[in-house]
């Protein structure tokens, strides 16, 4: 699974990828070359999140992609999911998370290289930095200095994901800093042809 930690990383959104369209949308971006799919679900109950997770994981495996669940440590452990991504709410018990979760673990480090180094020591498989640009999904997110990605590439031995406000117009600027993965939300789900848009990013990253 670790060899999948590169390329296009798509993240779902309750408004842009609603329950009735989520499988179809994910299928389209997988056909466009997405390597990683993260389910970020802040609305549905546990049963629904479990149901969607298992369906998406099956779909991702079929396409040789990695499925990642956002934040729900309990569900990721219970279902033995392939991937889990956590943010600052789980920092305090990250050692416990790493002990109990056997899959790929990603951690949001925002604009902190020190935190990323700590997370690498604890056993994170990749770290994410962002927001890289102003983000429609998280309008209040702090914008990072992109130089941190270059520094992280030098100082860390694990893959680096860039996230936040990335779209077809600014992705070339970001790629100069050579992140391993580029996480995209609204620019893909809002496009008229998701497969084509995913392929655009995949070709550019390659």
Kindly list the characteristics that best describe this protein.
206 residues, alpha/beta, TIM Barrel, globular
Structural write-up:
With 206 residues, the protein is α/β, with parallel strands linked by helices. It has a single domain, classed as Alpha-Beta Barrel (TIM Barrel). Helices cover 39% and strands 17% of the residues. It contains nine helices and eight strands. Strands 1-2-3-4-5-6-7-8 form an eight-stranded parallel β-barrel, surrounded by five helices. Helix 7 links the parallel strand 7 and strand 8. Helix 1 runs parallel beside helix 2 and helix 1 packs across helix 9. The longest helix is centred in the N-terminal third of the chain and has 17 residues. It is globular.
Please provide a brief summary of the model.
39% of the residues lie in helices and 17% in strands. With 206 residues, it is an alpha/beta fold.
Map the helices and strands.
Layout: E1 7-11, H1 22-31, E2 36-39, H2 46-62, E3 66-70, H3 73-78, E4 83-86, H4 94-100, E5 104-110, H5 113-122, E6 126-129, H6 147-155, E7 160-162, H7 171-175, E8 181-184, H8 186-189, H9 194-205
Parallel strand pairs: 1-2, 1-8, 2-3, 3-4, 4-5, 5-6, 6-7, 7-8
What is the overall shape? Answer: globular
Distance between the termini: 18 Å
Give me the side-by-side strand order of the main sheet: 1-2-3-4-5-6-7-8
As a whole number of angstroms, the C-alpha radius of gyration is 16 Å
